[in-house]
Request: fold
Amino acid sequence: MISALPVYYCVEFLDHDTGDHPENAGRLTSIINAIDKDLVIGVVELRDPRPASKGYILLNHDDSYYEMIKEEVAALSGGSGRNLDPDTIISPGSFIAAEKAVGAGIDMLHNYYGTTDENGKESRAIALPRPPGHHAIANRAMGFCLFNNIAIAARAAIRDYGLERVAILDWDVHHGNGTENSFYSEKEILYISTHQHPAYPGTGRSDEIGIGDGEGFNVNIPLAPVSGDAEAKYCFASVIMPVLEQYDPQILLISAGYDAHERDPLASLTFSTQTFRWMAGTVDKFCSERGIPMFAFLEGGYDYTALAASVIETMRAMRGEVDPDEPEYLHVMDNVKRAVKETQSALSNNWKFS
Ligand SMILES: [Zn+2]
Reply:
C-alpha cells in the first residue's frame, strides 16, 4: 500500500493555452482545487514531471512530425496560439507542456521499475497531462492531442524494462484511434476501449481486432448514446475483465477520460461519478490481486464539476479505498448487448467468453 498517491502535475500543463476551447487549463485547475478541498494532506502528493527527451517521443512518433510540432510552436514566439487542425490548438507554451505530458508517464515507470527498494516502488500513480494524448498518431496531431502520452509509456515499458504484456484500458468516451493505430499489429500491447459510437473520430468498431501478430489484441466495445452505469458494468463483466484475466498483463495503463459522464457537454453517454469510482475500483482490485502496477493518464472530460469529482473517485480507488460490488442483475440496453456480442464473436478465436 502506498502512503500518498503520486499525482503528476505542473504549471506548464496550464501554459498550453487553448483559450475558450473545451480542452482548457480550467480543467486541471478544477481538479487541483478539488484535491485541496476534498482530500486530506498526505493522501496525494503532487509531482512535477521531467520533460521527456526526443528519444522517448520518437518511440511512437516520426522524427519529421516531432520537428514540425517543435518548429510550429517556436514560430509563435510569445504571440498567441493557432489551430493546427480544426480541433487542435498550439500556443507558445505547448511544446514544453507536451514534453512534460510525455515525461509524466516515463517518470511513473521509473518510480516503479527503476527502484530496487521493494517498499519504495510506487505501484499506483495518476498523471494529469495537457495536452492529452490518445488521438495523436505517429505523424499527426488530432483531437486536442499532440504526442500520445500513454502509447509512449507503453513503448518505454517494453524497451526500458523488458515487459512483454502491457494492457491499456481506455474509458474515454472517444475511441483512442491513435493508440489503436500504434499497436494494431502487436501482441505485446493489448488495447481495450469503450467509447460512444458513432462519435468522433469514427473508428472503434467491434471488428477492429488487430492484424497479424496483433490479431485479438485490439478490443473495441462501441456504446450507443445514453449508455450508462449498467452498460459500463456489463462491458466490464462480459468483455473487459475476461480478456484482462486471460491476457495476464504485467502492467495496466488507463486512458482515463471523463467525457462519458452524464454532465459532459461533448458526448452523450450517461456514466455517473459512481460509475467511474466503480470502474477504477474494479481495475485497482484486479491489479492488487496480481501485484502489478497501474498508472492512469488523464485524457478528456469537459465538465469541470464532473471531471473533478470523478478524478477524485479514481484517486480514492487507486489508494485502495473502493470495494467494488460484483454487478448482479443489470438492465442493459439491447443495442449495447448486441454490440458486446459482436465484440465477443469478433474475438472468439482469441479469447473465451462465458
Ligand atoms: Zn474524449
